[in-house]
Structures are given as structure tokens and as C-alpha cells.
Amino acid sequence: MRRTIPSATGNSVMPTYWQAFAPLVLFTFVASVTPGPNNMMLASSGLTHGFRKTIPHMLGVALGFVVMVVLLGLGLGSLFEHAPWFYVALKYASAAYLLWLAWKIAMSSSTPDANGRGQPITFLQAVGFQWVNPKAWVMAVGIIAAYVPKEGFFFNLAIAGLICGLVNFPSVALWAGFGAGMRRWLHRPLLLKSFNYTMALLLVASLYPLAFETASH
Q1: Other C-beta atoms within 10 Å of 158: how many?
Q2: Angle at 213 between CA 209 and CA 217, to 5 degrees
Q3: Which residues touch 60 (CB under 8 Å, ≥6 apart)?
Q4: What's the burial of 193, exposed, middle or buried (CB within 10 Å: 0-12/13-18/19+)?
Q5: pLDDT per residue over 60-100, tens digit each?
Q6: Across the strands, what pairs with 92?
Q7: What confidence tens digit (pLDDT) does each residue in 32-53 have?
Q8: CB burial class (10 A; 0-12, 13-18, 19+) of residue 40?
Q9: What pTM value is reported for the model?
Q10: Across-strand partners of 13?
Q11: Contact 184, 46 (CB under 8 A)
Q12: Which end of the chain is more exposed for a tag (fewer CB within 10 A), N or C?
């Protein structure tokens, strides 16, 4: 027997969970695989530390985003409605933190970490980073508002969180793999430094939506 999900109006049904959540799969993939703070950092980490040492970072990104989606869906977003100053403070703290990360990437080692030196971002640091990542906030709010069926909301929220994790992890892993794959080509200090500068600039550029939102107010 196929399971169905009532529509918001209650007058029709969606035949399967897959049909209900297929748009979410597409949205999560596109949003996860396109450039953003997480992906710039993962590419740089893959280059500097290698793919294997970047796995905790990748897992932290995927799980951290799932936790964000679920907690926002459970009502954390109402905090911003009652305390808008907290949202503003978080927004500027996020921008400052991302600028600091961009500087760290630009100033990172001039040679790939082939001998195991250096400290890549840990699992818990990657989980926590999602809460200061503007792109993650936009994705999470958009998913809850547009892609989680309201009928049976909490169960659907759990399904949506699972989908986000399953789609997000391989998407961000592509960027870590890209960085790791570049190790053989960027062994020269000047080329490596140019790559890190590019990643840092793209990380700063990812703040554009935040700056646009501020200007519009």
C-alpha cells in the first residue's frame, strides 16, 4: 500500500512521499553543491589536509545542517520574531566570523599538509559553524517554509531532516574531493597560495546576500 500525504487544502492527496519530497531533494542538492562558505572551506581543507582528514568536517556540515533544520522547524525561529535584535546580532557576528575564516584560509600554509601537520576543522566546529553560516540559514528557513508538508508536520520535518543529511553530505564531499584532487597540481607554493586566496575571496563574496539584505533595510 502506498502512503499518501494530504495537501494543505485537504481536498487532494499526493501519491507518495517521494513525490512530495522530490522538490526538496532537488533544492537541497542545488543549494548544497553550489559555492558557499562550507564548500569554500572544504575545498581549502581538502587541498591543505587531504580528503581523509576532512571527513569529520564534512560530517559536521551535514549533521549540523540537519540539526539546524529540525530545531528551526520545532520553533526556534519564533525567537527571532520576539527578539529581532538577536537576529541582527547573529547576522553581524556571522559576517565577522566569515571574514576571519577568509583571512585564515588566505594565510594558510604555503604547502599541502602531506605529512599530517596542521589542524583541520573538527566535527564539532563544523556543526557549530552552521549557526553562523548565512547560506545555511537561508536554506533551512526556505526548506521549512516551502518543502515540509504542513499535514503531519513533525513527522514530515523528520523526513526532511533525513533527506537533507543524505543529500548534503555527498554534495559537500565533492568540494573536499576537488580540493584534495588539486594537491597534485598545486604543489608549488605560489599556485597553492593563489588557490587559497581565490577560496578566501569567494568566501567573502558569499556574504553578498547578507550585505544586500542590510542595504535594503
Answers
A1: 14
A2: 165
A3: 121, 122, 123, 124, 125, 126, 127, 129
A4: middle
A5: 999 999 999 999 888 865 666 677 777 677 667 767 776 77
A6: none
A7: 888 788 998 899 889 888 899 9
A8: buried
A9: 0.69
A10: 6
A11: no
A12: N
d(CA 33, CA 37): 11
User: Angle formed by the axes of helices 84-106 and 189-205, to 10°?
Assistant: 170
Write down the residue that cell numbers 601537520 correspond to.
117
Grid coordinates given for 177? 574531493
Q: Spell out the residues 6+ positions from residue 97 whose beta carbon is closer than 8 angstroms to its own.
A: 132
Query: Which amino acid makes up residue 206?
Result: S
Single out the residue of 138, 139, 133 nearest to residue 203, CA to CA.
133
Q: Is 5 helix (H, G, I), strand (E, B) or coil?
A: strand
DSSP for 7-35 reads: -TTSS-EES-HHHHHHHHHHHHHHHHHSS
**Helix (H) or strand (E) segment spanning residue 6:** strand 5-6
First to last CA, the chain: 51
Full DSSP string of 93-127? HHHHHHHHHHHHHHTS-SS--TTS-S-PPPHHHHH
